[in-house]
Amino acid sequence: MSEEILINVTPQESRVAIIENGVLQEVHIERTRNRGIVGNIYMGKVSRILPGMQAAFIDIGLERAAFLHVSDVRSVVSATQSRSGSASGSTNQNSESSAIGDLLRDGQIIVVQVVKDPIGTKGARVTTHITLPARYLVYMPYTKHIGISQKIGDDSERERLRNAVKSAMDDGDEGGYILRTVAEAVSDEELRTDIRYLRRVWLAIQERINGAPPCSLLHEDLALALRAMRDLVRENVEKVRIDSRETFQRARDFVREFIPEVDNRIEYYPGERPIFDLYSVEDEIKKALERKVPLKSGGYLIIDQTEAMTTIDVNTGAYVGRKNLEETLFKTNLEATQVIARQLRLRNLGGMIIIDFIDMEDAEHKRQVLRALEKALARDRSKTYLTEMSPLGLVEITRKRVRESLEHVLCEPCPACKGRGVLKTPQTVCFEIFREILREARQFGADKYLVLASQVVIDLLLDEESVSLVQLQEFIGKPVHLQVETLYNQEQFDVVML
After folding, report:
1. What is the model's pTM?
2. Phi first, then psi: what are they for 441, rounded to 5°?
3. CA-to-CA distance for 438 and 445, rounded, in angstroms?
């Protein structure tokens, strides 16, 4: 399977598209304004000890000092130890049982990593337990432990992964590793690639530690374009095309230093035609925000994303088949499996997903549809798990949520319907207005009333509901005036007593 990666960079945002056999499969988006500092490593300086809170404020060169709790202090790194970039003078155990004053002192220089972005008036949360992530591994320079995600449940696979990491480590290697959930079933060579990358990154950080001034940045978490180089470029990727010369140069410098084996696959795209137009990526992104997804046969999917779960409904639509009903339903469901697997990746849908396939009578057809779905999901980079098909034709899937869905990145709830997806009809709003006028007339008895509402509601009150409005005025014995409020949505209205 041929694969290409397209990277589109503007000052406002970066976008990465993964193309398989000419078809868009995944989109990653990062807005410049929303980039945080989690993962950044700083040469910090202790500015204040807080014995009562068992914490300290650390100056890392930002507007507000960062917060360091005693539980996040490695028993301790002195200024000299920090400068050497070595863990030799420290223990690897947590310091939660020690007092903060025994571990740190005012003015001390320590290396810290941000684990939580600043929020409001609060500074960042930092730790001295440094970790460096790669695609499959997390490197911990100050421990010898090799850990494996609890979500990898197969004992033989856990043992294989542990042995693969041990064999890839040199005898003199410092530090330990945690194997992430996505490491399940990956090859030994891919793990070795990650280890080589992490080793180079840590060596570069150590060099900066030796010469960096206090309150300076030592290591910045990678921007999206460089993370794509690290996490997405694998053996089956033929080309990585970047439409920004500056980003292309940074990506080339990055891979030459850390991942030299992929250097010859990166190229600069200077074309006048936007890079995302090469494979109609912009059109596919727009389609991925719609509820309805057409199938080539004439059937369609309806995808609804809610807080609790995502539901996918399969429908035959205009497809009537050529033989019999059962064959028609089977072919529609079979085609839907491929489209569903692609939509999960493209929309980046995570958590609980319920698929409502069209009911089939034939048990063999049900088995084939489920196996086809399993095979299609096997290409997904995120870990998925699916259940057997229920008697009602439902299949439950869980998909690991590693980032926000495409809809959450690009959209926000409608201010009119508050995310419900529906609005009250103008007639419903008219009747609510009538009830509100009656309520106020009984309670307060004003001389007259003014109704403020949207254009469509006022039009209805003057047309189809005009007789009802006249009857209401006669009943309360007071005049009711109408006024269009252009800023109101269809559901909004106000009844003002005059």
Report:
1. 0.73
2. -65, -40
3. 10
